[in-house]
Task: structure prediction
Amino acid sequence: MPIFRWEGRTRSGEPRKGELEADTLEDAQRRLENQQVVIAKIKKKPKEIVLRMPGTTGVALKDLVIFTRQLATMIDAGLPIVQALELLSNQEPNLTFRAIIKDVKLSVETGSTFADALRKHDRVFDALYVNLVAAGEIGGVLDTILNRLAIHIEKNAKLVRKIKGAMTYPVVTLVIAVAIVFVLLWKVIPTFEEMFSSFGDGSLPGPTQMVIDVSHFFGDHFFLITFVIIAVPVTFMWLLRQKGFRRVFDRFMLKVPVFGPVLRKAAVARFTRTLGTMVTSGVPILDSLDIVSQSSGNIIVSEAIDFARQKISEGTTLSDPLMETKVFPDMVVQMISVGEATGALDQMLNKIADFYEEEVDVAVDGLTQLIEPLMMVFIGGIVGTMLLAMYLPIFSLADTVGEH
Result:
């Protein structure tokens, strides 16, 4: 729906200006007249050109946290939500986010609840965000809920950064190793081969001949090898979007040595932190589990949560079905059971989250310290072996010259 910018005065002569969402210019003028506004100027707002990477929301978590905290402060200070959104949109440097905030403001102005207005932009405001806002509106504690949300987003972002950091290092190192081998096979090895050909018809050492043969194969099938290098990660990313493959992959990642325990701890931390935040905010347990399942990031964990939700709807406790799934550690299930028995489930969930977030920090630091030297040895071994193979004929030639 088009947005119109207008300027005018009230019947008492006070200047006013703003933006209005309407189907046509005439409709916008009619609505302003109904609000007792004498229009001085009105025109259709030009569309803002926003550039962003495909597949991204265009809104960073940092932007979302700042918006949430500032909105909580303004509401706590007694500012009407429409006015708060207007102020935040005007000072937002991110054009994508600015347009979203303005659209939310217009929706609230036209009668939508704040939660419903956010739900229209579900790529930025996920189900957790929207449902907590809805609970805050119903309970009259929106400022408290928003502060809680900001803390949750920050903690979750920190956890994601830790895991991505641990996974990114070996991948980047592997890419660098492939690039180095690429350059050696393409440029360096042929240069050595030309030099060796000037030595005469003498046979080359086995390792040297093998490296030269690999270089020939690389040169003869350059485009095919390049295609495979590009096609493999693209195909893998496509497979990850297929539910059957993703289930197998997620199960494997939870069981793989070294990385598996870290990912399991991260899954527990995310599950307990998100569920604890929602329960504390007054969201019903079944709705909370549904949202937590959607945001788990692992199909195996998601299916375990869905199983627990189904059992709870049949009248059981949370801890019993979680124990059946064998996905969550026994200690976690026992602590949840104690929380249910004492009526302090939200506090217990947050304590578990604190503990496992600390465990993830320690595990990732240890993992990084372990991987770093291994990857350096890996790269050094490949490059060193290739260079040594190239220098073997030179050493042989030096020995021959020394004998004469």
